[in-house]
Structures are given as C-alpha cells and as structure tokens.
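agent> step 3/5: call structure_predict on target 'Cytochrome c oxidase subunit CcoM' (Azotobacter bryophylli).
agent> reason: downstream docking stage needs a structural representation; sequence fetched in step 2, passing through unchanged.
tool.input:
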Amino acid sequence: MFIDDVVMAGVVTVALMLAFFSGVGYFIWKDSHKRK
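tool.output (status=ok):
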C-alpha cells in the first residue's frame, strides 16, 4: 500500500508540474505573438 501511495503521489506531482509549465509556456507563446 505504501509503495502504491508513493507512486500515485509522484504521478500526481509530475502531472501538476507538466500542466503548470505547459500553461506558462502557452502563455509566453501566446503573449509573444501579440506584436501588432
């Protein structure tokens, strides 16, 4: 049970990190194309 909980916590942590960095990257990419 302990190993499963640790693995699930790691997967959730990695998923949250990927979502955060992809959101920041999308914001920077969208903001860089506003040169009008």
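agent> step 4/5: record observation. Helices lie at 2-32.
agent> proceeding.
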